Amino acid sequence: MTNFKIPFLVLILVFSSKIISQNDCSKAIVVCGNSGFEGLTASGIGKQEISGANSCDGDENNSIWLRLSIKTAGTLGFTLIPESTDINEDFDFFIFGPKVTCGAIGQAIRCSTTNPESINQPNNYTGMNATSNDISEGPGPDGNSFVKWLTVAAGDSYFLVIDRPSGSSNFKLQWSGTATFDTPPTFDMPTGVSLDIKQCDTDGFQDFISDFNLKQNEALIIGTQSNVLISYHTSQNDALTNVKEIKNATSFKNTSNPQTIYVRIENTITGCFNTSSFIIEVNDSVNLPKNEASICDDITDGNDTNGLSTFDLTKVTATIFDNQDTTAFTIKYYLSKSDANLNLNELPQFFSNTKPNKQPIFIKVFDGTCSGTKEINLIVIPVPTKIKASGSQCDFGLNPDGLSLFDLNDYNSAFAGSDPNLSVTYFKNKTQEQNNTPLVNIFNNTSNPETIIGRITNAVTGCYSLSDLTLNVNLAPSQNIKPLDQCDILNQENGFATFNLDDATLVVTPTQIKSFYSTQSDALLKQNNIPNPTNYTIPFAYNSSVFIRIDDAGNCTSVSEVQLIVNKLPKIETLSDEKNIVCSNIPNRFITINAGKLETSSANFNYTWYRDGIDIKQSTYAIKVNREGTYTVDVANRFGCFKTRTITVTSSEIASITDVKVSDFTESNTVEVLLKEDLKGDYVFSLYKSDDFQTSNIFTDVPAGVYELYVKDLNGCGVFGPKIISVLGAPKFFTPNNDGVNDLWYLKGVGSNFSRKSFIQIFNREGKLLYEMNARDKGWDGTYNSNPSPSDDYWYVITLENNKTIKGHFSLKR
């Protein structure tokens, strides 16, 4: 084994009252390269050997002696660390050497008896290190618990005495420095090879005591090592201290089974040693995986509840050996151990137990070298209790035939109760049960009543019993129930609707309970019931069915079908986008409105008309109206399902003018037509002719003149007009030369509607009144007192009937 340098070696010393300590020099423990001692104790002093042999005023109280053999020169130190951190745990040490012998150890070359509590040390450590200079210290408060380490030479040996004057703690040593110890011998075993020894009981008695040759593995242990000595011990302490060696190692009789043997290998030159252990064990001839075999109670003896049955011992063997190969063994069975030991009264292959439920017998196994006998138990397991059960079911239809569907799982609880370990399998007859061809859970009976077989199996034991299940079909016919129907949902119209199934006209007595199902089989099998029958949405558009099951005292009395029908709504245009207008000024004018487009003849529907929510007592597809309002019509089909169409009728009227504003005598004359504010029509305007209209009520750039104003309602309620409009204007010049062009100056825009009370005055530059005329006169010819007036500018003043005055000037050109 590889040498270990001192800094990496930890020596653990355990104080225990159970183990003999190394109190004396002659029994010092050799410290070697891998010495990790455990199981030692310091209890007492043995012989007092250090009193007066040290300068630390110390002696032995509870001591352990160690011998240190130096292999490589260098420095040697250590730290002693108590297992307990209690400062009252006080350890001292003393070192003698080099090369001293027991009885002549001389004076200690290093020692420390300092008390850690007396010097207020932060811990209770002690030892030798490189930083200390003193070589001895103590007792009591003298020193700091550490002294200077040693410089050692190869081949030197020292005695280290560790003493505990107070306390009871164990401790460990941590070595330091550069020196190394001698290397101990090793157990030179090949990898994977064990020292354990197992053998048969060789004394003829099965007492598990036998003679063992403990040395049979020595060659493996020693390998190529020399100068080694091997000893065997019955305890670890004996092996460590090399006491109580087993003397008869080649014929050692074990005292327990199994038993641990401790082996010590020691170098005869250095004294270094190593220890290990191995197991010796007396085996049975074979290892039996199990100690009992069981079968189910059966009817072979006429009773399957008496705990008695017949065992096939070859099958028992397979069970006990967990189906391992047993061809190498001779196996026999006996009622008693004495019969087995004497090979008397072997049991036959088929053995009927005589003790109910559980009977012990003995199996004897011989493998050609060893034999073993063990007690095993034969167990007869009870089968599940036999039960006779019955079940009832409804037939379906108005003419029942006694054949129906059964869910056999409904009857499991009758046979298995609440036992989770019991399961039930059903068979139509005994032959199918023997052939293990079970029925499916959903069973159609073929006769009424019909009895089938239920096999009740215990999942834990595998045992089963057979029971009868009688199935009866109730022959009560189904009820003839009127279908439930309702209209499709407006704005959805997909054929799906929600029904209250309680509305079905079903006859039920006070003791009967009804439940609803989506399919006939679910109703018969009483599975997947409809949980909320008052709010059931059909699964298929427009036409579905549900099935109502009636039970009385837990038995089905009938299953009936009720149809659920969703009737379609009429197909109409529910909102009219047409422009429906009546004329309030033409009460005898009517328009026609209708109920919208239908998918079939309108004769198949009923119509109810309303105006502003009030029934107007009309019932035809189309009606005539002359009043505005919101008209609705309910269109109902033969199922009473209806839609409502909405038609808005508005009114219009002929125009009514409140004023016409004319802006004249300008460069761009305008005419603005003002209508009555609350008119309902849509109007266009014309000044020129009745078929030339504009949407604006304002005319611009209107030349002076007389016009006919028209206002037309685009909704056809009439045309207002004509209304005569005068747009006035005066010429800028005139040429009275009798050529037929501009010979007169006159006021433009004066029509027959113009008042004669309006007049015009003409003045020359000097303001002299030259001419005065009515606004409707033909005009001034440019003369004054029958004499032609000269070419010049002249002024006019027009005074209208409303006293409005208009002034301006014009030119006379000749």
TrEMBL record:
It holds the Pfam family CHU_C. It comes from the Bacteria. InterPro entries: T9SS_type_B (IPR026341). This is T9SS type B sorting domain-containing protein. The lineage of its organism: Bacteria, Pseudomonadati, Bacteroidota, Flavobacteriia, Flavobacteriales.
